[in-house]
Each structure stands twice: as structure tokens, then as C-alpha cells.
Amino acid sequence: VQLQASGGGLVQAGGSLRLSCAASGSIFSINPMGWYRQAPGKQRELVASINSDSTTNYADSVLGRFTISRDNAKNTVYLQMNSLKPEDTAVYYCNIVVPFVPAYWGKGTQVTVSS
Description:
By secondary structure, this protein is mainly beta. It is 3% helix and 48% strand. The strands form 2 sheets. It has a 6-stranded mixed β-sheet, with no helix packed on it. Strands 1-3-8-7 form a 4-stranded antiparallel β-sheet.
């Protein structure tokens, strides 16, 4: 299983970042994919998801600012993050979206938004 997130960094409030996640073809092709984040002292939360037909869903906190997309040929899912806020600071992970907590989590990517 491969779930490799990248693209994080330090950005000022109002800035943008684009995250990428390369996933194993075996899980990418049959499951909805999502971007999760976990801030210090908080539970991991799902912020955006995308189905195999590219329909999307977003958490209220990122709606209108984040855009999730996928490239099925590359088994890659992206998260374009605009108008970033300090409260978006977290480690971001990609994973499948299923009715239970996935057992495997790849290495996330740190996003830090300064005020």
C-alpha cells in the first residue's frame, strides 16, 4: 500500500498551497479518496473527498477555499488550498474514505499557516 502525501510547507495567511498524494493503484481505483488533517491536540478530520466519478464533498470549514481533484491515470489525488488561514495548520494525509477508520496511514505533509 502506498499513500505518499507531499507539497506542504510554510505559507502566510491568504496564501496557497497544492498538495499531492500518490496512491497504490489497487486502492485508488475502487475507493473514494480523501484528504484528512490533524492539528496538534485535535482529532483527525476529513476535509475533502472525491469519488471515482469525480464528485466531491467538503467540510464546511474549507468549502469555497479548497478544491480536491484526481488524476486516475497517475493514481494521484490533489488538494488545491487557497485563502489559507492559521487554523488550517495541520498535518495533512490522504487516504481512502470508508465507514471505518483505515488501518494504514501513510506519511502526511505538514502545512503551517502564519498570521
